[in-house]
Amino acid sequence: MYLRRLEVRDFRNYARVGKDFPAGVVVLHGPNGAGKTNLLEAVCAAASGDSPRARTTEELVRRGCGHGFVKGEFAGDDGPAKVEVGLARTGQRQFKVNGVVRRRVDLIGVAPTVYFSAEDIEVVRGEPAGRRRLLDRSLCSVSAQYYADLGRYRRAVVQRNQLLKELREKGKGENALAPWDRAVARYGARVMVAREEFIAELAPEVEGAHAAVAGDTIPLAVEYRPAIAAPSEQSAARAREGRAEVVEEVSRVLERALVERRAADVRYGATGWGPHRDDIALLLAGEPVRVYGSQGEQRSCAVGLRLGLAAVMRRMTGKRPILLLDDVLSELDARRRAGVFAACADSEQVIITCCDEQDIPVEVRESGAVFAISEGQVS
Ligand SMILES: Nc1ncnc2c1ncn2[C@@H]1O[C@H](COP(=O)(O)OP(=O)(O)OP(=O)(O)O)[C@@H](O)[C@H]1O
Ligand SMILES: [Mg+2]
After folding, report:
1. Which residue lies with its CA nearest to atom 24 of ligand 1?
2. Which residues are in the CB-under-5-Å shell of ion ligand 2?
3. What residues contact residue 55 under an 8 Å CB cut-off, 6+ apart?
4. Residue 223 lies in a domain
5. Mutational pocket test of ligand 1: of 36, 59, 62, 89, the residue with most ligand atoms within 8 Å of the beta carbon
6. Measured in angstroms, how far is the CA atom of residue 37 from the centroid of ligand 2?
7. Which domain range does residue 231 map to?
8. Residue 28 CA: which ligand is closest?
9. In a domain, 240, yes or no
10. What is the DSSP-derived secondary structure letter of residue 321?
11. Could you list the mean pLDDT of each consecutive 10-residue stretch along the chain, which spans 379 residues?
12. Sign of the C-alpha dihedral, residues 111, 314, 41, 94?
């Protein structure tokens, strides 16, 4: 898949832009504050209806305007697709696919993108929540089932927590938790098994992409670290039985753990354990990159993680995602910069930002399309 044309109106610092882009490498360069990240964000919004970094719709609408708009025209093996997203400062969004009004969930899989941002370093370096968010966003972008299950799981946890707080006030009535234990366990198990399967697919891809970027032989390992009831312990069962039985088994383990922890959960007024506390371990030569990695190593791992995600998404959707790489090259030495492009070689389109055009290896610059960004203008 590739972005053939982008139209933007009153989005971030852009008043009005309409640009055609070729497949292959697209370089966006310009000074700090020019609008490079905003343009990548517009591509994301045009592809998925959402921004990977904005917390509110309001942020996306140009200051002083009531409405913003992005339109992406995509081309690829499965034919063209046109996505339009209307953004109101008040928060409403409207989505159209090929001219027909749709829900946001209907955009899943239409034009898959993988977005690398500077914040990805925090995924490697920071708290588990960042890694969970990455995992959830990736899975949601390829699986409407996961999107639904995760939503149900979260709602069940919120409702269980509400009841926990009420019980803390009352000081009795733990048995009332039973239906919520069951709901949390049922949807939590689906979430956990999907995560485990996804990471099993992801791990070899990340290892390969990281090796291409880093150009050395220290392997990067990715491992699922569930907070409770490792589904991998059920992998023997999985070989014997089907997936549904594995989900059922994980659900039983999770429910039992929830029942056992009721008293502690009532004391805290919150559900202490479950997939909302899962983590992913990133290990370089067996050691956590978070703790021991250098800046450049952590960045290479973050890039490897994103490119690995792109490879898995490609397999799951049958479409090659558009790679959006924001400021990926800083802190990397020349060999690793070249490695980034080597790792992206079989992507249909890579849109990459940098402050200085010279950061792009010369052979890539000569074969790609280069756009200068300044003060909300693309030329
Ligand atoms: N809703 C908005 N309305 C108007 N301007 C905005 C809005 N949101 C962000 N901006 C402005 O957009 C400008 C460009 O931001 P952007 O993050 O795209 O820069 P950049 O080119 O990526 O810079 P850097 O190289 O520092 O990463 C910023 O100066 C910011 O203040
Ligand atoms: Mg930027």
Report:
1. 32
2. 37
3. none
4. yes
5. 36
6. 4
7. 124-297
8. 1
9. yes
10. P
11. 97 97 96 96 94 93 98 90 97 96 89 90 94 92 91 98 95 90 97 94 95 88 86 60 87 94 95 94 94 92 93 87 93 91 91 93 90 92
12. positive
